[in-house]
Specification:
single chain; mainly alpha; 2 domains; 6 helices; flat
Length: 166
C-alpha cells in the first residue's frame, strides 16, 4: 500500500468521528425543545438526550484527536462470512413482520405488551429457542424500561389494554 493511500485512509477515519460530534451537537440542541412539565422535580425528559449528546460529542472529539495524532485502525484482513450463502428470506420476513406488528400494536396493546411481543419475536426469529431465557428477557427488559421511563423520568408510555391495571 502506498504512503498516499495510507494517509488518505487514515484521514477518512475523521469523517465518522466528526459525524459523532455533529450528531451529539444536534441532540444537545434538539433536547432544548423538549417540554418539561411545570413543577417537575425529577430527572425529566431532557436528561437522556443531554447525556447521550454529551457523550457523543466527547467520544467524537476524542476519536478526531486520536486520528489526527496518527492513531489508525488496523486494516481488516477479511470477513469470516460465506459470500456464497443466500439471503435467509424467512428470517428477514419474520423480523420485518415483527417490527411492523410492533408499530401497529404499540398503541392499542400498550408499550408493555407490544414490547414483550417485540422482544420475544425478535429473539425467536434470530434463533433463541430456550423458553426460559426467551421469557425472562422478553418480560424483564420491557418491564424495567417501562418502570424507568414512567416512574423515574415521568415520561408517558401507552398503557393500552393494561390501562385499568397500571
Amino acid at each position: 500500500m502506498s504512503q498516499t493511500t495510507t494517509h488518505h485512509q487514515g484521514r477518512s477515519e475523521v469523517v465518522p468521528a466528526a459525524g459523532l460530534v455533529v450528531l451529539g451537537i444536534y441532540l444537545l440542541l434538539s433536547a432544548r425543545g423538549i417540554s418539561v412539565p411545570a413543577g417537575e422535580h425529577s430527572i425529566g425528559p431532557r436528561f437522556f438526550p443531554y447525556v447521550v449528546g454529551g457523550v457523543l460529542v466527547v467520544v467524537g472529539l476524542w476519536l478526531v484527536v486520536a486520528v489526527l495524532r496518527g492513531d489508525r485502525a488496523e486494516a481488516e484482513a477479511g470477513e469470516d462470512v460465506d459470500d456464497q450463502a443466500s439471503t435467509d428470506w424467512r428470517t428477514l420476513g419474520v423480523i420485518a413482520a415483527v417490527l411492523v406488528g410492533y408499530v401497529v400494536l404499540v398503541q392499542p396493546l400498550g408499550y408493555l405488551l407490544a414490547t414483550i411481543g417485540l422482544f420475544a419475536g425478535m429473539a425467536w426469529s434470530l434463533g433463541a429457542r430456550s423458553w426460559r431465557s426467551l421469557v425472562l428477557v422478553s418480560l424483564l427488559a420491557p418491564f424495567a424500561t417501562y418502570l424507568l421511563f414512567t416512574r423515574a423520568l415521568g415520561i408517558y408510555l401507552p398503557n393500552g389494554l393494561l390501562a385499568s391495571v397500571i
